[in-house]
Each structure stands twice: as structure tokens, then as C-alpha cells.
């Protein structure tokens, strides 16, 4: 008994759904790879080995990309800001700690 399916016998809606799912998977994996390569190696788990994460993302498909997004990055360090400062100053310090100092400004 043959288990192969002739694609020409599938309805058009099944081909469209298959195409949309395939494109969504490819876009999600590319987006995850971009996030992985933008993340500094010291913030990655598995010893900061980007090549290992790339293999996991590409070979395990959806699950590999989700695993990287959930467990592949270490959490950001907590920022200590004295409570005497205003809310705007604390927000700026948190943003600087997460995203780096703005252009032209030095770190506090």
C-alpha cells in the first residue's frame, strides 16, 4: 500500500492553508534567528554558543524557535535606582539599562 499523496488531488483550500503555514513557519524561524544573532553571547544559555542555537532553531522548527524565545536568553539584570529619584528618572535608568545609553549620553 502506497502512502504518498498526489498533490493535484488536494482541494485548493488545503494547498492555501499549507502555503500560509509554511510561510508563517519560515518567517517565525527567520525572526527568531535574527533575535538570536542580535543577542550578545554572554546573555545566551548553553554557554553562549550561537551556532548551537541556530541548529536547534532550524532543525526543530516551531518548537526550537519557541524554546529559544522561552529559555534561550538569560533574564536582564535588575537595576538599582535610589527611591529618592522621580518616576521619570527611574524610567530613564531602566530604559538605559535595558537598551543602552542614548546617543551622545554617557552612562550614569
Residue stretches low in confidence (pLDDT < 50, at least 5 long) are: none
The number of helical segments is 4
Classify the helix fraction into a percent range.
55-70%
The whole-angstrom Rg is 22 Å
- SSE order, as H and E? HHHH
Q: What would the keywords be for this entry?
A:
single chain; 108 residues
What does this structure look like?
There is one protein chain. The chain contains 4 helices and no strands. It is mainly α. The longest helix is centred in the first third of the chain and has 27 residues, at about 10-40. The relative contact order is 0.08.
Concise description?
The protein is an all-alpha fold and 108 residues long. It has helices at residues 12-38, 50-59, 61-71, 87-99.
Topology readout:
Layout lengths: L11 H27 L11 H10 L1 H11 L15 H13 L9
Helix pairs in contact: 1-2, 1-3, 2-3
